[in-house]
């Protein structure tokens, strides 16, 4: 009788082991499937965020860039003319007969006029928007390959055209670290 009980217990033990192995197998399989689903969900989220960043570029940043550049390049000749008029007025008041034209302005003064004109524009708003999307790109919250192909030329060219203002704006309070990081990465 004791032998029979031992055999029955051995059978139950063997069955429990088989059921445990099957349960473990199903748990591992379910875990792997969950990871795949989670990975696909994360990929979809990154693509959706990438699309949102592209929309920000196309609907806000690029139009702001165009508006800014049109405004600045319309104002630069006016500001050069104002500088010439002020210099000529001061010359006349001082009794000097020297009259200069815009072409006679020293290049250092022209550079200062251009910088001042750019600084008076709405460029800071554009740089702030670029800093915002640069965070998404730098920290891998978007698919860099989708973003890079679509906007890297626009981004890098804009920074290069406005490097004078960008360098002037960088302070401890406004470091634009994400724009600088992205620009350096995309220029490589």
List the helices and strands and how they pair.
Layout: H1 2-93, H2 107-120, H3 123-138, H4 144-161, H5 163-169, H6 177-187
Description of the molecule:
This protein has one domain (43-187). The model has no long low-confidence stretch (mean pLDDT 89). α1 crosses α2 (107-120). Helices cover 84% and strands 0% of the residues. It is built from 6 helices and no strands. It is rod-shaped. By secondary structure, it is mainly alpha-helical. The termini are far apart. 16% of the residues are buried.
Can you describe this structure in just a few lines?
This protein has six helices and no strands. The protein has 188 residues and is mostly helical.
* Succession of helices and strands: HHHHHH
Please tell me what the overall shape is: rod-shaped
**Total strand segments:** 0
- C-alpha end-to-end distance: 83 Å
Number of domains: 1
Mean of pLDDT: 89
Question: Which class do the helix and strand fractions yield?
Answer: mainly alpha
Specify Rg, calculated over alpha carbons: 33 Å
Q: Approximately how much beta-strand content do the residues carry?
A: under 5%
Percent helix: over 70%
Number of helices: 6
Which stretches are poorly predicted, pLDDT < 50 over at least 5 residues? Answer: none
Largest sheet: none
């Amino acid at each position: 009788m004791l032998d029979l009980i031992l055999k029955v217990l051995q059978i139950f033990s063997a069955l429990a082991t088989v059921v445990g192995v099957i349960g473990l197998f199903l748990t591992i399989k379910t875990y792997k499937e969950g990871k795949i689903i989670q990975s696909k969900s994360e990929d979809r989220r990154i693509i959706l965020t990438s699309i949102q960043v592209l929309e920000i570029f196309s609907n806000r940043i690029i139009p702001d860039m165009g508006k800014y550049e049109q405004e600045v390049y319309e104002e630069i000749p006016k500001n050069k003319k104002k500088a010439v008029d002020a210099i000529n007025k001061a010359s006349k008041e001082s009794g000097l007969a020297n009259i200069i034209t815009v072409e006679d302005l020293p290049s250092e003064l022209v550079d200062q006029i251009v910088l001042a004109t750019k600084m008076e524009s709405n460029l800071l708003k554009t740089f702030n928007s670029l800093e915002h999307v640069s965070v998404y790109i730098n920290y891998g919250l978007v698919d860099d390959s989708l973003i890079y192909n679509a906007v890297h030329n626009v981004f890098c060219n804009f920074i290069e055209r406005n490097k004078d203002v960008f360098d002037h704006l960088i302070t401890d309070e406004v470091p634009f670290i994400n724009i600088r990081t992205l620009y350096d990465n995309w220029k490589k």
